[in-house]
Structure formats: structure tokens, C-alpha cells
Write a structure and sequence with these properties.
The chain is an alpha/beta fold. It has two domains: about 250 residues, Spore Coat Polysaccharide Biosynthesis Protein SpsA, Chain A; about 40 residues, no CATH class. It contains ten helices and 13 strands. The strands form three sheets. It has a five-stranded mixed β-sheet, sandwiched between helices. A four-stranded mixed β-sheet has the order 5-11-7-8. Helix 1 links the parallel strand 1 and strand 2. Helix 9 crosses helix 10. The N and C termini lie far apart (about 45 Å). The model has no long low-confidence stretch (mean pLDDT about 95).
Length: about 300
């Protein structure tokens, strides 16, 4: 039985560059070895052919919203129903993984019960199919050091968790902003270990444009993003990597690094997480961010 199931809902393979980087990503997952199972979810153009070519499991009949965008909850449910591994990981389909991904997942699982592992990425321009011959990982690490850019610590491009976690999710649209932030919020609200593994897991995001999205717009500008935020419970639930309460460093789970900024952030979100009071959460948000609160109030946004 696999230890970890990596699942994803790739974009259509019609754009040559998107097809290239997605195939690169999936092949890097397969390089993690027999302890990892890979599942691809959806009916996007070219997906069935690539799944057959690479010999990975392909699941159909994902539920979609009125815009035709796959729902995150359905993707997670399908992966859970069609796997047996104790650990699951949703990974965006343009992300290259290295062996530290599986190794770190097992370390966290040995240390704690319910958890969510997230982390920061490196951005790298990749235009060609990668050759997964001997030494490819060393070459990727060299490219990271010389050409890659560290992405800001916002949401996450991967989520590792025990299979019993995240069984109940809002009807988020995949590929739109907001749901990844909700994952961090939900883990904190449930009292799970929310682990920032940025120092332990090195992932590479392969750069791409937004030609696959309506109007060629970045996903955070689309109406479905605003709907995701509404479903999440409003902007108070937009948590980022600095909101993780633990970190994985040198194979050990440690408390998140202390700082004045972190102390006041924990004060701000205390009523939301510990008292489970959205109204008090709104009050504290207004106290800490009066200009933002006034702006969102005028815009009619929560």
C-alpha cells in the first residue's frame, strides 16, 4: 500500500507550454518511487491521454460549479474514495517535487496526529520537457540557486494531510484564489498542527501565463475568486503561510518563530480561532486594519 497519494486536477493540455510543464510536474511526482501513488482528476482535454501515457490513475465525474469549473470538495472526495494511503497530498499540476516531499510528510506523520503541511515555493522559467535521467534533481537544485525566485509567503501550492482530514469542505472552485488560504485557516480553527515546511521541502513552480483563464486574467481577479472568499466565510479566513503555528526544521517539528508581528497577529485572530466568534473576529479585524475594514465595508464585502 502506498504511503502517500498525490492528487491533482490539471488544466487542459491544449496549450503546448501548459502541457509541457504539467507533464514535467507529474513525472517528477512519479520519480518519488513506489511509496507514492499519483491520481489525476477531471475531464479536461488531453488529460486521459497523458494519464494513460504516464500510467497513472485517472478519475472522472468531478462535480463542477455553474461556470463549469471543478469543485475542490469533489476532487478531494474522489481522491479519498479511490486511494488507500494514510496520507494524501493535493499538489498543483505545475509543481515539481523532490524526494524531500515524501520524506518530510513521513516525518510530520510520525510526530503528530491531525495536521496540514504547507510551504513556500520557488518560481522558475521552464520551457522544455525535462529529462528525468540520472542527476536531474541535482540540476534542478542548481537552477533553483541560479535562476529561481522565492515566491511571497501567501497561500500554498501543496497540502499534505491525513486522509481523515478535510472530509467536509465548502464548494470552492479549483484554480481560483481563496481556497488555499482557507485550508490554513481551517487547520488552525480545528486545532490541528499547521506546519510550514518551507525550510524542509523545496518545490518549484514552473512559470506560465493566464491564457487558460477567462479573459487571460490572473485567477485572483476573477468573480469565482470572490465567490471562493465568500464561501470561505469572508476575508477574515484568508490565512497565509505566516499563520502556520508550527514549522518543520531539520526533521523536527518546532513552534512557529516568535516575533512582535506574530504576537499581534495571534491576538487579532484569537476570537476567530479560539472563541469561534466571527463577530468578534470582525471587530478585532477592524481594530487592527481600520482602513481595509472601511474599504471592504464600502465595497459591500465581508
Amino acid at each position: 500500500m502506498p504511503t502517500l497519494t498525490i492528487f491533482s486536477a490539471p488544466k487542459p493540455f491544449t496549450n503546448p507550454h501548459i502541457a509541457t510543464i504539467q507533464r514535467n510536474a507529474i513525472r517528477s511526482w512519479l520519480e518519488l518511487g513506489s511509496e507514492v501513488e499519483v491520481i489525476l482528476v477531471g475531464e479536461e482535454d488531453g488529460l486521459a491521454e497523458v494519464a494513460a501515457e504516464l500510467g497513472v490513475k485517472h478519475l472522472l465525474n468531478v462535480r463542477r460549479n455553474v461556470e463549469g469549473t471543478p469543485l475542490v470538495s469533489s476532487i478531494f472526495d474522489l481522491a479519498r474514495q479511490n486511494s488507500t494511503s494514510p496520507l494524501l497530498a493535493y499538489v498543483n499540476a505545475d509543481i515539481l517535487l523532490l524526494p524531500d516531499f515524501l520524506h518530510s510528510a513521513k516525518q510530520v506523520a510520525l510526530a503528530v496526529g491531525d495536521f496540514l503541511v504547507v510551504g513556500q515555493r520557488w518560481d522558475l522559467d521552464v520551457q522544455e520537457r525535462l529529462e528525468f535521467s540520472a542527476g536531474w534533481q541535482d540540476q534542478l537544485l542548481r537552477d533553483m540557486k541560479t535562476r529561481a525566485r522565492r515566491h511571497v509567503a501567501t497561500g500554498s501550492d501543496y497540502f499534505i494531510f491525513p486522509r481523515a482530514c478535510f472530509a467536509d469542505m465548502p464548494e470552492f472552485a479549483i484554480g481560483r484564489a481563496g481556497w488555499d488560504n482557507w485550508m490554513i485557516y481551517a487547520a488552525r480553527r480545528q486545532g490541528w498542527a499547521c506546519v510550514d515546511a518551507s525550510k524542509a521541502i523545496q518545490i518549484v513552480h514552473q512559470d506560465h501565463d493566464y491564457s487558460h483563464l477567462p479573459g487571460n486574467q490572473p485567477h485572483y481577479k476573477l468573480p469565482e475568486t470572490f465567490e471562493n472568499i465568500r464561501l470561505a466565510g469572508g476575508r477574515l479566513t484568508i490565512f497565509n503561510l505566516p499563520d502556520a503555528n508550527q514549522q518543520l526544521v531539520d526533521g523536527k517539528l518546532l513552534p512557529a518563530r516568535c516575533s512582535a508581528a506574530r504576537f499581534w497577529r495571534e491576538v487579532e485572530i484569537f476570537p476567530l480561532l479560539k472563541l469561534k466568534s466571527y463577530k468578534l473576529g470582525q471587530l478585532f479585524y477592524t481594530i487592527f486594519h481600520p482602513k481595509k475594514a472601511w474599504y471592504y465595508f464600502r465595497q459591500g464585502q465581508r
